[in-house]
């Protein structure tokens, strides 16, 4: 029997690796400047892969997705994510941190990652682990 090659499952594997790196970074209680930069980078990678997992899954279900915002809105409507506004906030902060580096911004975003965005990604990780049958 040949296993079916499903894009969202492949993408989920990549997301899971980035998510686990982020989880390790979040576990550092008082990060150095370099560790904080790594935490933010892992967040950016995990978030990018998270919305792409959503996109691939939604497209496999027959939906058309043109942007991260579309993927998030569709996931919220389908009940795959519960905190739609927080996901949009995470998208905006990901866009902010991708293009500039400012220490005050980095510290503020670190707090949001730890207390607001990491739990969103953790919930999505659990959701797709279940969908992947793990």
TrEMBL record:
Chloroplast in keyword set: no
Keywords: Transferase
Lineage top rank: taxon: Bacteria
GO function terms (MF aspect): transferase activity
Matching InterPro entries: HepT
NCBIfam families assigned to the protein according to its UniProt record, in alphabetical order: HI0074
Protein's recorded name: Nucleotidyltransferase substrate-binding protein, HI0074 family
Organism: Citrifermentans bemidjiense (strain ATCC BAA-1014 / DSM 16622 / JCM 12645 / Bem) (Geobacter bemidjiensis)
Classification lineage: Bacteria, Pseudomonadati, Thermodesulfobacteriota, Desulfuromonadia, Geobacterales
């Amino acid at each position: 029997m040949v296993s079916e090659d499903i894009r969202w499952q492949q993408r989920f594997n990549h997301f899971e690796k980035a998510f686990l790196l982020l989880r390790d970074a979040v576990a550092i209680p008082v990060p150095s400047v370099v560790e904080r930069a790594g935490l933010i980078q892992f967040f950016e990678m995990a978030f990018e892969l998270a919305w792409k997992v959503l996109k691939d899954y939604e497209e496999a279900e027959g939906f058309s997705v043109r942007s991260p915002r579309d993927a998030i809105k569709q996931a919220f409507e389908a009940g795959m994510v519960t905190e739609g506004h927080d996901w949009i906030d995470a998208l905006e902060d990901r866009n902010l941190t991708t293009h500039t580096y400012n220490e005050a911004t980095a510290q503020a975003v670190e707090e949001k990652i730890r207390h607001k965005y990491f739990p969103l990604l953790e919930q999505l990780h659990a959701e797709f682990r279940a969908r992947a049958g793990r």
